[in-house]
Write a structure and sequence with these properties.
Blueprint lengths: L2 H10 L7 E3 L6 E3 L6 E9 L6 H4 L1 H18 L2 E13 L3 H18 L4 E9 L4 E10 L15 E4 L18 H10 L4 E4 L4 H12 L2 E5 L7 H10 L3 H7 L6 E5 L1 H10 L6 E7 L3 E5 L2 E4 L11
Parallel strand pairs: 4-5, 9-12
Antiparallel strand pairs: 1-2, 2-3, 3-6, 4-6, 7-10, 7-11, 8-10, 9-11, 12-13
Helix pairs in contact: 3-4, 3-5, 7-8
Length: 303
């Protein structure tokens, strides 16, 4: 069973519960509380799948583990308030690894004012595993979900895409402040962070919103790393921008009116209007030719 098949299965078997406003299936769970909705997200990094410890070192692992979770809070335009961390350490050199991971975790957490309030540690004969859970809060405007995009909405991304494997995948910058500034300025209909790849993550918005999208190849921002990677792989820079993943930029939907306003006077730098939402399908217009696009990106294979 593939990862997203498993998620759909879990969602179908998860009953509604008092106090759970949004359960499995979005970037964060949303829980009700007297002071307003809580955001809760968790992500796990595993040696040999998400990083090579011998090449990057434990501090880089800690930085990435905290940053990718904060990126999920950004995807819902929330504010992070606390973190808990689970570590499974190799039996060899475990203490030094733990210290390095913690230093990396704290480096990113401190930059965003997020206390690490607890967690758990264990050891085994395998590689390093780091699991971070972030607790956050929605703003007064509420959490931005994946399910609000409408035909006619404009699609934006917050920065250039592709080629993250050249090093950016280990040092993502969560777009917390960007998301909050956008949320205060316009009505965000839907949003997601680009972790698995632009087309793969955009498909989550399309599935949850019940619509389609048309991408304009000429306006998709391509990172210099995507150009460098294309020389190594033979793929085009655009292909890397569409499917590489781990860019941790945000993709979001707004009305045409708000979209035009963002083009004229955005509260943040680096926005790119890359397409529109339509009734159905995922399409790319390249050189005046419109063609269907198969989503590409990272998917965990749960065999």
């Amino acid at each position: 069973m593939a990862e997203f098949d498993f998620i759909r299965n879990v969602r179908a078997r998860t009953p509604a519960a008092p106090g759970v406003l949004v359960g499995p299936g979005d970037d964060c769970a949303v829980l009700a509380r007297p002071g307003g909705p809580l955001l809760i997200t968790t992500d796990m990094l595993t040696e040999g799948v998400d990083f090579l410890l011998a090449e990057c070192g434990p501090q880089a692992v800690g930085r990435k583990a905290m940053a990718v979770n904060l990126s999920d809070i950004a995807a819902m335009a929330g504010r992070p308030t606390a973190a808990v961390v689970g570590l499974v350490l190799p039996r060899t050199n475990g203490e030094d690894i733990a210290v390095g991971v913690y230093d990396g975790l704290r480096e990113v957490a401190d930059a965003f004012g997020v206390p690490i309030v607890g967690g758990d540690t264990n050891s085994w004969d395998g590689g390093l595993v780091v699991s971070v859970t972030i607790i956050g809060e929605a703003t007064g405007r509420g959490a931005v979900l994946r399910s609000g995009a409408k035909p006619g909405d404009w699609l934006f991304v917050t920065g250039p895409l592709g080629g993250s494997l050249l090093g950016r995948h280990l040092a993502p910058t969560p777009r917390i402040q960007v998301a909050l500034a956008l949320h205060a300025s316009v009505d965000l209909h839907a949003m997601i962070d680009i972790s698995d790849g632009l087309t793969a993550d955009l498909m989550h918005i399309l599935e949850e919103s019940g619509c389609g999208a048309v991408l304009q190849a000429s306006t998709i921002p391509i990172h210099a790393d995507a150009i460098a990677r294309s020389k190594q792989t033979g793929m085009t820079p655009l292909d890397h921008a569409l499917g590489d993943g781990e860019d941790f930029e945000l993709a979001f939907a707004v009305s045409p009116t708000d979209g035009a306003r963002l083009v004229r006077e955005s509260p943040v730098a680096g926005l790119h209007h890359i397409g529109e939402f339509i009734d159905a399908g995922l399409w790319l217009v390249d050189g005046g030719v419109r063609k269907a696009v198969m989503p590409s990106g990272w998917v965990h294979d749960l065999k």
